[in-house]
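To the structural biology subgroup,

Please find below the input and predicted structure for Protein O-mannosyl-transferase 2, which we are adding to the shared reference set this quarter. The sequence is reproduced verbatim from the submission form. If anyone notices a discrepancy with their own records, reply to this email rather than editing the shared folder directly, so we keep one authoritative version.
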Amino acid sequence: ALGLVTLLSFASRFHRLPEPPHVCWDETHFGKMGSYYINRTFFFDVHPPLGKMLIGLAGYLSGYDGTFPFQKPGDRYEQHNYMGMRGFCAFLGSCLVPFAYLTVLELSKSLPAALLTAFILIFDTGCITLSQYILLDPILMFFLMGAVLSMVKCNSCADRPFSASWWLWLSLTGVNLAGAMGVKFVGLFVVLLVGLNTIYDLWDLLGNLSLSLVIKTIGPGDGFFSSAFQSQLIGNNLHNVSIPEHLAYGSVVTMKNLRMAGGYLHSHWHLYPEGVGARQQQVTAYLHKDLNNLWIIKKHDSDIDLLDSSSPVEFVRHGDIIRLEHKETSRNLHSHQHEAPLTRKHFQVTGYGINGTGDSNDFWRIEVVGRRAGKLIKVLRSKIRLTHVATGCILGSSGKTLPKWGWEQVEVTCTPYVKETPNSLWNFEDHINPKLPNISLDVLKPSFVEILLESHMVMIRGNSGLKPKDNEVTSKPWHWPINYQGLRFSGVNETDYRVYLLGNPVVWWLNLFTIGLYLLIAISTAVVLKRGVQLTSEHKGELSRVVLCGGGQVALGWLLHYLPFFMMGRVLYFHHYFPAMLFSSMLTGKYWISLCCQTVSLLPSSGGSHVWWLGFYLFHPLSYGMIGPMASDPSSPMAGLRWMDSWEF
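Predicted structure (tokenized):
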């Protein structure tokens, strides 16, 4: 039976795998990131690195050279070898079926329940689609299901602790948990599931009086990171560089906000649009290295060229009043009491003046955190704030993303609320002044732990701030269990080769019905037992086995992988539900066979399996691709299958 379901799983996932021979949906991101690893290029992404590293490894081992640009969906692969990466993801996606089969078999000791679970996943069009492309989802779900299977197997060895099999499954549980967390942060949910299982086991052991209580001892993302972090990146302009140590008038500098992924102080020729404060030059925070990040430090009351070799060096000191002139546009950093674009009650920050000549609203007092007046300012190491002399507000990065007119860069404001946060603190990073001696940046070298913590904090902050792109189909968590709306993987009109991510409706709606029925019976059982209703020991044992032991673990897994999304502020998509869908499918297989094992029509060996096959047969073009009229066209062969108006295939 295991061989049969494994064969069917691999056959369904590898069928027509090369098609379409162009970039589909998020392959543009994760294929590109695999290329970055092959080319040893540093980049920033909101997810941990393991999934992209494995994609890059699969591409490298299969002969892909990392030169395809993955610019946008629809770009043809031509001569580039993409099959190694797709094949790797399809292989891991194919393993989900035997993993789920073995998990349910271990929990229920029922071959029909395990087979039913396997057939549900084999014939689910959504799982097939998600497994056939260069994505993180099949990698994440492989480790997730591997962790659940290992946990269940380890539980089965509870009567022989510290045996070879116990150590094997315990170790595999840890490996798979690490793998899940290393692919996406939502891997934390399965860590929580295993943690709760462990707490339950420990509580159970506490009641075993035969045991002693004696404890046994057994590139493109550089700008997202701090200056010290960047100094460790080979190829970064701060790596092994020597720059002047103390800030002086006439120096050309860049200023980096100390907020995680806060960006560089930036300006460009574009003006704020009508109705957004004063129509002056935009000032933003930009997350990448750019010539428009360069500013010249000048005295507030003098335009003398301080880089002239005949003029003496004059250092900037804590408490000085300065001007910052944008090098590319020769306009001064400026603020006034017009409201900021996005943050209410903050003041707008602009670029103002002509060739460095502006007005008194261009004056800023530079202050170093924790220093006394008159002290010199150190590049990279001094945390500084700029206080606007005329209004008393403090320059900061709000962290909010500007609309299209602001090139989706980060809003810079001047806050009248004097509160010391990373948003209002800066450091000088690049420092160019030919009149000053240089020092090495080795003194900035961070420890491995500091690098690790910063990289994860930046990923978490970037993940939580994700926003949808134009015309992108997003969804809400309540949409997912009802299969309300799918995702276009490829193609938008009738002449395109279209792939559409949508679950097999027969499978998904039965899963939803099962979850509701299970929760109803679980609550009813709890009430019956609480009310002291007399049950035979046989009935109590059956209820405990069906509702609590196996079913409870699986239902808890579904809850942990679904409910947290209701509390997330980031943009959400349909594919986020698929880890939870694995648990709902296992619950369906285990629950129906446990309660209805005498109902022949539900057994996989009977005609009931034809239900899954029928749903798969009707909807399989969504997974394997289709060309022709859209389903909204009455002449389309798919028209009769558009059971919900929200389905857009």
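Summary notes: Residues 505-530 form the longest helix (26 residues). The two ends are 35 Å apart (CA to CA).

Regards,
Lab coordination
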